[in-house]
């Protein structure tokens, strides 16, 4: 079971209160987790990544085990602690401005 923590606005959109638990088929990667997330919560399609290119949206970041995974390949394996459910994958809405 993979644990995912969404930012507040996406939790509201998906109508979930806390972290989401997902069953992921095969290896746990950003791609497979997001596929499972969008399959379980179709209202999130297009909010975290582009629906056509599957590229991460510019102001969305991924963190796990105190590491920024945002620039990792979407097909790279997630850390073992995330794959086993010991640690969550954090989806964070980045802020910009000056």
- Report the total helices: 3
Which stretches of 5+ consecutive residues score pLDDT under 50?
none
Using the coordinates shown, work out and report the CATH topology: Ubiquitin-like (UB roll)
- Shape estimate: globular
CATH class: Alpha Beta
Q: How much of the polypeptide forms β-strand, as a percent range?
A: 15-25%
Total DSSP E strands = 5
- Helical percentage: 10-25%
Q: Would you kindly provide a written description of the structure presented here, covering whatever features stand out?
A:
The protein is an alpha+beta fold. It has a single domain, classed as Ubiquitin-like (UB roll). The chain contains three helices and five strands, in the order βαβαββαβ. A five-stranded mixed β-sheet has the order 2-1-5-3-4, covered by helices on one side. A hairpin with a 2-residue loop joins strand 3 and strand 4. It is globular. The mean pLDDT is 94.
Question: How would you summarize the topology of this molecule?
Answer:
Blueprint: E1 2-5, H1 8-14, E2 20-22, H2 30-40, E3 60-64, E4 67-68, H3 80-83, E5 89-93
Parallel strand pairs: 1-5
Antiparallel strand pairs: 1-2, 3-4, 3-5
List keywords for this structure.
single chain, alpha+beta, Ubiquitin-like (UB roll), 5-stranded mixed β-sheet, globular
How would you summarize this macromolecular structure in one to three sentences?
This protein has one domain (2-93): Beta-grasp domain (Ubiquitin-like (UB roll)), CATH 3.10.20. Helix content is 22%, strand content 19%.
